[in-house]
Amino acid sequence: MPIDLTARDSDCHAGGHRLRVRCLGQWTPDEPVLVFLHEGLGSITQWRDFPQALCAATGLPALVYDRYGYGLSDPLNEPRPDDFLIREAHILAELLDQFGIGQPVIVGHSDGGTIALMVAALYPDRIKAVVTEAAHVVFEPITRQGLSAVYERFQTDLQLQEGLARHHGANTSEMVTQWAQTWLRPSLAHWTMLDMLPAITCPLLALQGADDDHGSPQQLRDIGERVSGQVHCVMIDACGHVPHFQARERVISEIGAFLSTVL
Length: 263
What we know:
Largest sheet: 8 strands, mixed
CATH topology: Rossmann fold
Number of helices: 9
CATH superfamily: Alpha/Beta hydrolase fold, catalytic domain
Number of strands: 8
Order of helices and strands: EEEHEHEHEHHHEHEHH
CATH class: Alpha Beta
Distance between the termini: 18 Å
Helix content: 25-40%
Strand order of the largest sheet: 1-2-4-3-5-6-7-8
Strand content: 15-25%
Structural class: alpha/beta
Number of domains: 1
């Protein structure tokens, strides 16, 4: 019987901030739940209907949320620290407790994919499985170039400004500036999480577009070679940085096939 995917939006508090959360379907603590982590300029609404589509394809309920500083969550009121991704992983662990999710299947895109890998490394006994899209585990020159290009475009592209403002409101400019300036600060020039990857023991599906302008194929190779658990890496041809839009059916198919073997 198809699950009821009517979106139920609410606010909660985690990590000292108010966060906007969307629930799709119902669950008990012993049931798998998809948990979506958006990219560095993302939000609940920027996933569009992809969470609902993946829920329908897999038969699983989902939790989607705006991280601190994004969407309808609390706006940023201070610079992000260098270890902001690790802090986000701990915040996710709080949310899992609050919402009674005992079998989380984390689905993360870009920065969200990196956070997904971190929470799997930090809480290996709590994560059922992880799916990443365009996750980065090393800050490469192509990563710097890609985000610099987006930041520069934002300064003059009214369409981009207005598009992001529909999701982030009055916080848009500060959100974009903090995202870019955090990653471009000298202290993160050699950022890496390679040393955390061996701690990942849960099943992992890692997806990346062959034409990703924010990360080279080495990102996928590092993930595949360094995690300790079951891992399946997929490079998607004719696809850029956003596989769930640019290769939607392929992504849904890959995730469905992966989850059918691990749940």
